[in-house]
Every structure is written in C-alpha cells, then in structure tokens.
Amino acid sequence: MLLAIFVSTAQAGPWISLAKFLLELAMLEPEIQHGFPHAYLAAGALAAALRVCDAPEKKRQELVKDVMIWPAQYSSEELLVSCEEELLQLWIRCKDEMVEFHHVFRFLEAKYSYHSRFEVAYLSPAGALKALREEREPEDFRDFDLDWMRCGITGSLRQCDPVA
C-alpha cells in the first residue's frame, strides 16, 4: 500500500533510490541491521530519504500512519525516528571515514552515484539530521554547539556522534 502511494508521485524515484542506498548501508553495520525490526528499518530508510530530499510533510505522515500498524515494544513513531537518526548518523560517519568499513562504503557510494540511481550518493545527510534533532530536542538545547563531539573513533555507531 505504501509503495503504491509513493510510486504514484513523480518525485518518488530519488526517494526510493536513497532509501535503498540507506538500507544497503545498514547492512554494513550489524547494530543497525539487527537493532531494529526489519519493517522499521525499511520505514526508517524511507523516512530519512524523504527528509533528505525535502519531500512534502504529507508523505512522511502517510509513512508514519502505515508504520503504526506494525507492533513495536516502544512507540512506533519514536522507533521510526530513532532508526532514521541512526541511518543518517551512519551515512555521515561513512562519508567522514569514521568507520572500519569506509572502503566498502566507497563502492556503495559509487553505485548510487549513477544517473540511473538519481545520483543520491551526492546528497548530504547533515541538514536532514540537524532538522530531525531540532524536532526532537527541547528548544533550550537547539543552539548548543556540538562541535566538541566530533571524534575519530572507528567501530561502533554509538561511540561517536559526528554531527553538529
């Protein structure tokens, strides 16, 4: 049902291509791949793609509505947003070569740099991650400078948060 909604939209190509890119990226990080139910992982990738591509808010709301039918231990929307955030963080860490498998990421990035895949690898996740965090965080912390959090640790996704 959800895919039918997106396929009917002319702009759906880049959204779907970017979601596939993020899903393939998630396969490189076991903590993400196995840390979320697969339905939420797919929905999180699509939510991140919609955010990065500045899709209409209505599309995101349709996605959230569809995800609500899947049972989750926690709030369905919170789980979706957490997955979306993890995927965007991972993408940034890969771009900045802050993961052990950054050399593998380069092949994935090359694959999604082709015109036939809407060149989604050239997009930047930083603005989308910042917007997501601004939605989640209290206003008191929005102007907090997080540059000090940048670090060069390789390994687990949760060791370092590279986005300010």
From TrEMBL:
Pfam families: Cyclin_C. Gene3D superfamilies: Cyclin-like. Residues 16-124 form the Cyclin C-terminal domain. It comes from the Eukaryota. This is Cyclin C-terminal domain-containing protein. It comes from Cladocopium goreaui.
